[in-house]
Design goal:
Layout (H helix, E strand, L loop, with lengths): L7 E3 L1 H8 L4 E8 L3 E2 L3 E5 L2 E6 L2 E2 L2 E2 L3 E5 L6 H20 L3 E9 L16 E2 L15 H19 L1 H18 L3 H8 L6
Parallel strand pairs: 3-10
Antiparallel strand pairs: 1-4, 2-8, 2-9, 4-5, 5-8, 6-7
Length: 194
């Protein structure tokens, strides 16, 4: 696993990069990690990810991630796949969750959605966001594991009831596999197994 230095770009240079081209995918995110207050560009695994800050024109703004896309290289589908892989690694690296709540694509970058997406994030200062030396994951099995970890982390921090059910079901299946079917049957019927 490679852990290269991940360059971060702040300030006016970020805005200039966003104006230089056409073809962007903008994803809204729900997050529990400290998110930058101003836009930051992160150069990771050969792509530039623009993390939209939580402050825009002196007002609160939804966090998001923008990435360039090209119709000749898989278009929006390839871009959103990269965003999902990036959020899985960033979630694990930062010890929280960053989950895509939805996305749009078009010629210009945009802030995704006007509705509030659940986030329990702190706010990193204007230039204090850092994911330096975040590992580049190339193994598909590790990518899948990180994707499941990200999903589980969001369930655990946002949807406790579902998280409990998921963990209970997994424990019941493991117990059942060991020949203790009574516990599994009780959980399957919704009865307490205490």
């Amino acid at each position: 696993m490679k852990t290269p230095y991940v360059p971060h770009i702040f300030g006016e240079e970020v805005a200039q990069k966003l104006r230089r081209r056409r073809g962007w995918l903008s994803a809204g995110v729900a997050s529990s990690i400290p998110w930058p207050s101003s836009d930051v560009c992160v150069q990771y695994a050969g792509d530039e990810y623009f993390l939209l800050g939580t402050q825009r024109d002196g007002k609160s703004s939804s966090p998001g991630i923008i990435i360039a896309y090209d119709d000749h290289r898989g278009g929006a589908d390839a871009a959103i796949a990269k965003v999902y892989r990036f959020t899985s690694v960033l979630s694990w690296f930062a010890g929280g969750y960053v989950d895509v709540s939805g996305y749009i694509h078009g010629s210009h970058p945009a802030v995704y959605g006007g509705r509030t997406v659940y986030s329990s994030m702190g706010i990193a200062g204007e230039k204090s966001f850092s994911c330096n030396h975040m590992p580049v994951i190339e193994d598909d099995n590790v990518r899948k594991a990180l994707a499941f970890w990200r999903e589980g982390k969001r369930l655990d921090e946002v949807h406790d009831g579902y998280a409990f059910r998921t963990h209970t079901t997994k424990a019941a299946r493991l117990t059942h596999a060991r020949g203790q079917s009574e516990l599994y049957d009780r959980l399957g019927e919704g009865q307490a197994a205490c």
